[in-house]
Design goal:
heterodimer; A: 500 residues; mainly alpha; two-stranded antiparallel ribbon; 21 helices; 2 strands; globular; B: 145 residues; 2 domains; flat
């Protein structure tokens, strides 16, 4: 019973006062971040990472704090979807479809509680899935050599660019931009400088946290100003919160199905929570006998995407921890956190640092109960957050981003670079070029190149070595399908129109 | 049109990356591909996707109008100002000015924005300095020699 031993180890790490308080603080912060429109999990985690360093936490504690923020934000995202018809973050978009109509019918409280329970079911079962699947995948990953890793990185970029995107060429451009940026600086194996333009500040390369905070948080500032910053206000009346047992019981299978679909969408490298909630919603709708009721406040339309996106959030941790390949935008940010803490995710992590992995898993199991309490009986408190005017919130976010990065590097060059990334992110968003592949490219570019070069050293320059094992052939085929198949499946994967 | 322009810029960038990568010399020791192969592969992929973007452009995005563009430009200036002054002028003053201007852009109320600036500056300083223990200087360091 290896898992039981590991869990005991995990709980011995998780059940300390420091770890528990960090998890609770993370859950509260995360729910707030998730609830605020526009400030999603990736933004939130990105902004908070530099600040987490200043707390001088050890690796496990920092990871626990940030992952709790991540889980919390996934729960919190639904609040503004339901009350304002504005998704708190992208994965919560599907929840607006039935959540807001349900709220307009005077059932806002029921929708919040039902979606809170669905989030719990999705996230809790996904954490158990993570616990069972991750060690198996980590064992498979032991057979990975440089050629397999190269193919795996390619798979991540291809699925992200394929299923997750609307235009393959544009996601490929985003990936190339990221990979190009990752090559700036001194080449580790030869000591040569590449693409620095002679700028001394760039010799160490572009710090991925600078890029992440720039592309997520600073871009958000520009987008907000452009959209004239709607000051938020609660649009629907929230009565007394009661628990709609009937609805919860009626949607029990919906939640379970959403969880399974979401979890596997999350595990797919590069696909992420938005895909999880989307697939969960669409599959529930296609299974239903009365499809017309979806979009009018159907309880299944609230339960399915919330179970799906929270399950995907847990699923996305599987490839991140076992292979070092993030399953979503936010897990990419978490990977950046691990790399900054000098922890290399991958199969060795499970053997060499079991306390980190199992401490995290145990804490997440506990965090889910904390989040259930925060998001069901205490949800009213968080709806108050929506009343913070944008004119205070936005400058606050900007200043926190800047000070966070400044506290890490102390260099004004990095702050300027971050602002530059913010402008780039704004242009990319206008052109509908996704930003997450850029981040993933910056994060994984170095590893991908090292894998390629090692493979070539091992094979003495023979390129067929890249297709030499069944694992790598499988990964190449999956990568090809992941990139090409969505072109033919576009009509099925078409997202529904969002009102408002 | 925007897609085509951006596609052209990317084509130029990809060619520049390619040209710059070919200049890199491969070392003589056992690294068959050296530091230039990967950049060349990426430049190739970027070129290909940029050409697709040029030949099959999406619908024209809605770019901000002149007034919004001015607002965005001002926001950018504020952020650059903040980046440059945070170190020499200390935390309080640049933060108050920058957040007041950003706040004014969202809700143009003079007193409200000034209050937001002062409040955020003082509040965040308190949190950063005493809550998180960051080594921030409240005032210009020259004042203290």
């Amino acid at each position: 019973m290896e898992i039981v031993d590991n869990l005991i180890l995990g709980f011995s790490v998780a059940l300390t006062i420091t770890t528990l308080s960090l998890a609770i603080a993370g859950c509260v912060l995360g729910t707030i971040i998730g609830a605020l429109p526009g400030l999603g999990p990736s933004n939130g985690v990105a902004i908070l990472i530099p600040l987490a360093f200043s707390l001088e936490l050890d690796a496990t504690q920092a990871l626990v704090l940030m992952t709790s923020v991540y889980y919390g934000a996934m729960y919190g995202g639904r609040i503004s979807s339901i009350l304002l018809n504005i998704p708190g973050d992208e994965p919560a978009m599907m929840t607006t479809l039935d959540g807001y109509p349900m709220a307009k019918k005077g059932r806002a409280g029921d929708a919040l509680v039902l979606s809170g329970v669905a989030s719990f079911v999705g996230a809790f079962l996904a954490t158990i899935g993570l616990m069972l699947l991750a060690p198996i995948l980590a064992r498979v990953a032991f057979y990975f050599g440089p050629a397999e890793y190269f193919a795996l990185y390619l798979l991540a970029f291809c699925t992200l660019g394929g299923i997750g995107a609307e235009n393959q060429a544009k996601s490929a451009i985003a990936v190339c931009l990221g990979l190009g940026i990752s090559m700036i600086g001194v080449d580790n194996s030869t000591g040569m400088t590449r693409f620095t333009g002679g700028n001394l500040h760039l010799y160490d390369g572009v710090d991925f946290l600078v890029a992440i905070v720039g592309l997520f948080a600073v871009t958000e500032i520009f987008v907000f100003i452009e959209s004239r910053g709607r000051d938020s206000a609660i649009g629907v009346n929230l009565g007394k919160i009661t628990i709609p047992f009937k609805d919860i019981f009626a949607t029990r299978w919906t939640m379970l199905r959403g969880t399974i679909v979401g979890f596997f969408a999350g595990v797919l490298p590069g696909a992420g929570a938005s895909l999880g909630s989307f697939l969960a919603y669409m599959s529930e709708k296609s299974l239903s006998k009365n499809q017309d009721s979806f979009g009018t406040g159907d309880v299944r339309g609230v339960a399915a995407p919330e179970a799906g996106n929270n399950a995907a959030a847990g699923g996305a941790l599987v490839p991140m921890l076992t292979l070092g390949v993030p399953g979503s935008g936010t897990t990419a940010v978490l990977l950046a956190l691990l790399m900054t803490l000098n922890i290399t995710p991958g199969p060795l992590l499970f053997n060499e640092r079991p306390e980190v992995v199992w401490g995290l898993i145990a804490t997440l199991l506990i965090a889910n109960f904390v989040l259930l309490i925060l998001n069901v009986p205490l949800v009213k408190l968080f709806t108050k957050i929506l009343q913070v005017p944008a004119s205070i919130l936005l400058p606050g976010v900007a200043m926190i981003s800047f000070v966070g990065i400044y506290s890490l590097s102390g260099s004004h060059f990095d702050l300027l670079l971050m602002t530059g990334f913010g402008v780039l992110g704004f242009i990319l968003r206008k052109l509908k070029i996704p930003a997450v592949p850029v981040i993933l490219g910056i994060l994984l570019g170095g590893h991908m190149e090292v894998s390629l070069r090692r493979a070539m050293v091992l094979s003495n320059g023979d390129w067929t070595y890249l297709f030499d094992s069944y694992i790598s052939i499988g990964l190449w085929i999956a990568a090809f399908i992941g990139f090409v198949a969505p072109i033919f499946l576009r009509s099925y994967l078409k997202k529904p129109e969002f009102p408002g | 049109m925007s897609d085509r322009i951006f596609g052209l810029i990317l084509t130029a960038l990809a060619l520049a990356l390619f040209a710059s990568a070919t200049q890199l010399e491969s070392p003589f020791f056992a690294d068959p591909v050296g530091p230039k192969t990967f950049p060349i592969l990426i430049a190739g992929a970027a070129l290909l996707s940029a050409l697709v973007m040029i030949s099959i452009p999406d619908q024209e995005p809605s770019w901000p109008n002149f007034i919004t563009l001015k607002k965005l430009g001002l926001a950018l200036l504020v952020l650059v100002f903040y980046a440059l002054t945070l170190k020499p002028l200390g935390f309080l003053l640049p933060t108050a000015i920058a957040s007041a201007i950003l706040s004014y852009q969202i809700s143009p109320k003079l007193i409200g924005s000034a209050a937001t600036g002062v409040g955020l500056s003082a509040g965040l300083f308190f949190i950063f300095k005493f809550g998180l223990g960051l080594s921030l200087f409240p005032f210009p360091r020259v004042l203290f020699g």
